[in-house]
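User: structure tokens for this one?
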Amino acid sequence: MSIPLWILTGQTASGKSEVAPGIASELDAEIISADSMQVYRGMDIGTAKPSIEVRRQVPHHLIDILDPWESYSAGKYVKDAEQVIHEIVKRGKRSLVVGGTVLYIKSLIEGIFTGPQADWNLRKELERLSEERGTAYLYNMLKEADPQAASRLHPNDLRRITRALEVYEKTGKGISTFQSQWQRYVVVGAGLKPAPTIQKRRYIPTIVAIRRTKEDLHNRIEHRVERMFELGLLNEVRLLLENPNGLSREARQALGYKEVIEHLAGNYELEECKALIKKRTRLFAKRQMTWFRSFPCVHWVDVGEKESTESLLEKVKSLLRNLEV
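Assistant:
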């Protein structure tokens, strides 16, 4: 029997975390984080992690489960999330997945991409080529190797272009071949169910996504980045770097942390660092929206620039009530 799974998502700084506790109470649910960096202890300010007080009010899972020198992946996330969901079901509660790491959400509801593991030496070589000849050069390489994958990627999406080239180099097959193994769903009422030609999956997800105008979102990103520095992001990163165990590759590349590390190394002035974080966060939000639009049966909740958190919460609650009718 498939398990209903509620998902609250949206772009970074859209307001997910502010309304998540209220939504969990409405659903009588426990929250499962879908944020690839909130798993790390000590990475609190830069990840906009829910406070201890909020986590005491509503149970949160998959937050602070790793030290920052440990590695994590979508495969590990799915394994951990499925264990948590199983335990929540046994308690007679619902599961509310909250976050904006699209790969985690996609992997949980559609299945794991079973391509080859990362080859960091090859990635470094591809990154070197990109620096010397530009991202367009790698994109043209991908068009030759895997036209189907290239047609689905933006020519400036260096990370995914690199991964697609890596898969082709390692296997001789296009990444599309492996991605076709992922579960596909069809719309049924308010939610989704596995397509009849594919083996049944464990979950029937209902996806609710918060949507703001571009200008509003950019203003919120601007405020969030400034607020993070006011709260002590620089000191947080300094403490992480002082630990003799260091930072894992994943943690070191986290948005905001990467730029502060470069600032502390003397590569950027503070204001340059802030500006770069804001710019990269805006680009990240744009990529998130592209992915959200590709999800089937997303229930969008539009929120106005001056709208209060309480109003947004009531909008989402109203939508959820309608979906359960």
